[in-house]
Amino acid sequence: MILSMAFRNIWRRKFRTAVTVIAIIVTAMLYSSIGSATTAISISSIKAYTDYVGDFDILVTGRGQNYFFNATPFIDNISRVDYVDAVSPRLIFGAYAAIDDHYVRLLVIGINMSYDSDIGSFKLVSGNLSLGENTCLILDTIASTNNLHPGDSLTLYHWSLTGSIIISNLTISGIIEQKGKISIDMKSVIFVSLETAQSMFRSEGLVNMIFIKLNQEIIDPYDLDSSVDRIVKVGEEIQEIIGFDYQVTLVKAQILESVSTAISFQKALLDTFASTALIMAIILVIFTITMNLNERIREIGILRALGFRKTSIFILFLTEALLLGGIGSIIGAFLGIFLSEYLFLTPIGFRRSILGRYVGAITFNPQDLIFSIVIGLVSTIIGGLYPALSATRIEPAEALSPAARRAKEISIIEKKINPEFPLLNLIYIGASMFIIFSLFMVIIPLLGSTNMPSLIFMVLFLILIVMLVSLVLIFSGIFPVIIAGLRRILKFSNKISVILANINLLRRRKRTILAFFMMATAISALLLIGIMTNTQKNSLVMSIKVNAGADIVIYSQDGLPLNVTDNISRIDGVLSVCPITGSIDVTVGDIVLWEKASVRLYGLWPVNYVESSYINDFVSGASSIFSKLQENLTVIISSGLANRLGLSTNDYLRLDLYHKTYKLKIVGVIPTAPGFRFTRFAERSTGSDILVSVNTFINITGINPMIYRIFVSVTSEDKITKVVNEISNELSESYDIQVITTQDYIDRASEGIEQLNNILSTLLDFAVFIAVLGQMASILTSIKEREWEIGVLRALGSSRSQVALIFIIESLLLTILGYLAGFLGALIAALELNYSNTLTSEIVVPISIPVEQALMTLLIILVPTLVLSIIVSYNSTRKDIAEIIRLAELQ
Predict the structure, then answer these.
(1) What is the DSSP letter of 270?
(2) Distance of alpha carbon 622 from its chain centroid, rounded?
(3) Angle at CA 314, nearest 5°, toward 311 and 317?
(4) Neighbours of 543 (CB within 10 A)
């Protein structure tokens, strides 16, 4: 009977039921999508790593004198171990091949084709796959680069086991591509038979590696930790068989552990932000069930009069909540599986990456499906408890007498504290939470030197969420004061609708504050993510610029002569070039070395450094400071080193090198020098850098320095690629150099930040959507509860538009105030986080507010609530006045 009544009650209120079910669907869908997406990434990562590392799971190598060993006694015993599918001994050594007029470094891998057939595969490009005596298979990359074909001969030079140089002649039997035989990035490899390799290496019967492949049933992609445990047990059994003179390396277990750690962290992070939507859904369930309760007070009185116990009333309302949760959870859980492709995998570029080819769009873990359903049900149970308990407190006499009920309501209101008075309990709780977690926010980054960066990152996010909630609690506590203040400000307009809207928000301040809390929390979380990602993007860009130093950086292994800069300067598109000498370790301090530090000395061209590097982005007046560095025996040091030594600009720095002492005048103290290790912190100054001109460097060292780095700035970004190519063509034939472009790193870092922003914003957009649904539920509840008031106002001569305007103003006030509180909360939390970061960061970056996102969010919440309040309020006032009052009296 209770179940049928619950079904009837939720079916009779279709619109309200739909709003609540949608909120539950969204919540369950988010958790289900997160589970499905992380499962897809987990499966794909395992397969991608297998392709990258190779199609084997365990390696056995020798140790000490047993580095080369006879594998024959081990093969059968290892093959009998549970889960072992293939055991392949290999002999691997390096060689040089003489091809035309140059030598090519190769890796020779000797394999037994029968043992090795189950590990990876060969794809024949040309020739055949036979491996006879003194024949080999070569990768197509070697063949295409060196113009080799089947039938060609290779002459190899290599060491033997005894240390003598051997010359071997091989015939190419086939050109191949490989998958899983070896790591995907190993390109210079040739395969020979194991017997041929042993003959070449003069190590008959010996190998130096055993490759072991396990049955794939040992890996459960839904439980990677258990999979690792099973592989470890297999590895232990193999170790027992071969003894401790050999090393067992659990390659696949290491991969699975890395994947499990990364996936677990990502899933925890996403689940944490999805909890914002969960909180919104719980509050919305409270709204809906409370609204149902207020409409059915008379029904409850009848049921109680007919003998229903309080327990039965409680179960009835809780059953309604469970029905809403059950319907929404099941739909949302299955919908999330299908939508994970578009909510998470596509935004992070998963389908465009190498991982994307391994799985289809639908991949899920049954446990995640069950978890998302349970989350939906639990949220409705929590949300339904309060109204269900409230229903049990209604007495039959009160419920059956509208007049008595209204008299009681008035009595309760009169006994309450001034509704304009702030809710001090909320303020105290929120302020206490904010102060405590602000201290944690400051302390946590100081622990950044620990070996658990992922844990610290996760804790920071949790602290931020708690701080947001605490701020919203404070704003909720002062909400009545804000409304009262607005009423006093707006009373001069003499608009009765404005005054009544303010009064009604205070009269029902519990529900009003709940709706306000929903809106402010969702908005603050969304905008905080926007501010954080914007700020983090700027911080990453600045960090990359500080580490790199310039648009283009040329690195040299062996050093370059100073005159190479002349050729680079003549390249079209080059704006300026600055050579950087190699570093020399020196000791510096005050004149008597009362305070001293070990640092690295670099020489550069001061004016060119300002023109070539990013120094102007970090130091104001850099041109003036570095121009002074052209004077002999002058130096620029970091502010951290200056603080440590107690020195400042125009003081003298003592420098000791090679038992000689030099006195350098400090012409600049700066916190940052792009391309060099400068610091703001005295405790980090040991090992930092100091800068002098090349001439001063020569005077101190007495040598003509070699150049190990060159900073190059370009006239415009579109010239970077052209300049890099010309630099490579100019120098690479004569020198061993590497040319790096900073913009490439900036683009990749920015893309990663954008992906994170897209994912987290997606989660929080749904939280905002549920908050908007809650706002709609609040409007509906308010109008339904006040039908008698609507009838009275209409009877006193108010027009439909005047009455509707009261509800429209209420909705607008609640929405705008919720948005402003959310924005302010996000701003405060972001400032706190930024301040915390500056305590340990070398680069101070001001917070960056995403103005476009902030305005778009305001429109997203404002337009729906405004439209709905207009529609519902006008619809409620179109009824006949007498009919409105009569129906209200019956309730």
Answers:
(1) H
(2) 36
(3) 150
(4) 18
